[in-house]
């Protein structure tokens, strides 16, 4: 694994963690920002209300008791509240101050000409926030008309605001540090959980590539996507393993089936060479060699035909075929060999069944089935071929016999290439006939099924769905 392990920043778990922590941190920042905006606007509103309340009181005092009284009350009020916390100035309409609280501490706060202009222009009270660089707290200032000729400027230090800001900064930094650590921890844990299944698949695939084909990915039974991946991967491995086993068996069988005739040819040639004297002996050697070679060639040709048929429709010659006729012709062809073996061969077909297929390989399929039925049925037995057509299954061709039958354990294997039943070895054959028949049925979109009872007979049914 070590050479194949990706660098940390390329690892999925690491990237997922970064994403998770990043998104989590961003969401937390947005939440903090919203909270901050809300609180600051509440604090500012409260300060505005206090300043507006102050102005209302001055206006009432002006109406009832005159300007001197307003100035006197304002001075007392500012002293009571604290001369470093609040201030006021009374101005003429031209912006010149004629009375104020103790302004020693408020030298930096000037009179804003723009605000005065705005007020005189008819706008309502004007609020301003003044930041004085040398001081920690911001100052909220309100300009308002007390009468058509008198303007009041009141100000208040936003202490609460600064206190909140300081506390907020502290909380923000600590909370964000915790959030990042927590998000990274949780993200890493979740990402590890998510990718552990994928890592298991990779580990298994690595072991398999190193030769351990029997290894499988452990399935956690959670039923999630990673489990589905593991199950599909295992199914694929099962299939690959079966194919490999079949391939190995087939290679063994080919080697075996090639070895026997070649050994026989060699043996006969050796005997004739060492002991043969007459031309007749050499002639018989040549004849048996031709016979063995024919068998070998037939086997090789059948293998090639199976491959061609399995390669698909492109390699075949499809045309309109009368299946009923093809079956009748096949029965006629096999009638003599059935009679030779004293077997009754019956054929039951309708007048005509039209089908789209490759006539030469369909004939080959029927020959193989009929040949087997006659071969594996004892003298006195019966072979019956029935052809029918129905809406659901298309064309159905069944070849039944009363022969030796196939045992249950052999049944699933008889369609394998080179497989020959134990009790069939006395008969000639290559074990390729049924594989070819099945490949032909499948090339036409159909299949072959078999039912059989040992000692009673077998029925092979070919279904060829209509196009
Ligand atoms: P073979 O050359 O041995 O006949 P096949 O592929 O045609 O090869 O058939 C495979 C095996 O299936 C045979 O060896 C035999 O055991 C069994 N088999 C096929 N057809 C029949 C049948 N009609 N009755 C009984 N056994 C059969």
How would you describe what is shown here?
The protein has helices at residues 12-65, 67-81, 113-120, 159-209, 225-275, 279-311, 323-340, 359-375, 433-443; strands at residues 86-92, 97-100, 126-130, 139-147, 150-157, 319-322, 344-348, 354-357, 382-390, 394-401, 447-453, 457-464. By secondary structure, it is of the alpha+beta class. The chain has three domains: 12-164, 2-Layer Sandwich (Beta-Lactamase); 236-311, Helix Hairpins (Orthogonal Bundle); 319-464, Heat Shock Protein 90, CATH 3.30.565. The chain has a five-stranded antiparallel β-sheet with strand order 2-1-5-4-3, sandwiched between helices. Strands 7-9-10-12-11 form a five-stranded mixed β-sheet, with helices on one face. The mean pLDDT is 88. The site of adenosine-5'-diphosphate has 22 residues, from helix 8 and helix 9.
Features:
single chain, 467 residues, alpha+beta, Beta-Lactamase, Helix Hairpins, Heat Shock Protein 90, 3 domains, 5-stranded antiparallel sheet, 5-stranded mixed sheet, binds adenosine-5'-diphosphate
């Amino acid at each position: 694994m070590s050479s194949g392990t990706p660098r940390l920043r390329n690892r999925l778990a690491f990237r997922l963690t970064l994403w998770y922590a990043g998104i989590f941190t961003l969401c937390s920042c947005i939440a903090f920002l919203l909270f901050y905006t809300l609180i600051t606007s509440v604090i500012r509103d409260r300060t505005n209300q206090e300043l507006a309340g102050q102005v209302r009181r001055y206006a009432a005092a002006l109406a009832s008791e005159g300007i001197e009284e307003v100035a006197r009350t304002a001075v007392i009020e500012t002293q009571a509240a604290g001369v470093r916390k609040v201030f006021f100035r009374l101005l003429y309409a031209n912006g010149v101050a004629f009375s104020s609280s103790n302004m020693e501490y408020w030298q930096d706060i000037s009179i804003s000409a723009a605000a005065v202009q705005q007020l005189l222009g008819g706008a309502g009270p004007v609020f301003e926030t003044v930041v004085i660089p040398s001081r920690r707290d911001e100052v909220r200032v309100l300009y308002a008309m007390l009468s058509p000729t008198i303007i009041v400027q009141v100000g208040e230090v936003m202490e609460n605001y600064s206190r909140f800001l300081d506390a907020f900064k502290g909380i923000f930094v600590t909370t964000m540090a915790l959030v990042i650590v927590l998000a990274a921890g949780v993200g890493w844990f979740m990402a590890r959980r998510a990718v552990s299944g994928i890592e298991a698949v990779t580990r298994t695939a690595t072991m398999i590539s190193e030769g351990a084909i029997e290894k499988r990915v452990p399935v956690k039974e959670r039923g999630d996507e990673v489990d589905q991946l593991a199950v599909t991967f295992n199914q694929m491995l099962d299939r690959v393993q079966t194919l490999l086993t079949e391939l190995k068996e087939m290679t063994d069988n080919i080697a075996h089936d090639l070895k026997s005739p070649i050994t026989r040819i060699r043996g006969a040639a050796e005997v004739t060479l060492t002991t043969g004297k007459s031309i007749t002996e050499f002639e018989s050697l040549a004849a048996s060699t031709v016979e063995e070679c024919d068998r070998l060639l037939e086997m090789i040709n059948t293998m090639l035909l199976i491959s061609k048929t399995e390669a698909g429709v492109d390699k075949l010659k499809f045309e309109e075929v009368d299946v009923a006729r093809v079956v009748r012709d096949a029965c006629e062809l096999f009638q003599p060999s059935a009679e030779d073996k004293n077997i009754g061969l019956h054929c039951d077909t309708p007048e005509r069944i039209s089908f789209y297929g490759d006539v030469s390989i369909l004939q080959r399929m029927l020959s193989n089935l009929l040949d087997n039925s006659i071969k594996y049925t004892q003298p006195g037995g019966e072979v019956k071929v029935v052809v029918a057509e129905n809406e659901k299954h298309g064309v159905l061709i069944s070849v039944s016999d009363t022969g030796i039958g196939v045992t249950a354990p052999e049944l699933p294997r008889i369609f394998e290439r080179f497989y020959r039943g134990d009790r069939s070895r006395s008969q000639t054959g290559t074990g390729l006939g049924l594989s070819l028949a099945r490949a032909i049925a499948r090339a036409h979109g159909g299949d072959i099924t078999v039912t059989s009872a040992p000692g009673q007979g077998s029925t092979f049914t070919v279904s060829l769905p209509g196009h």
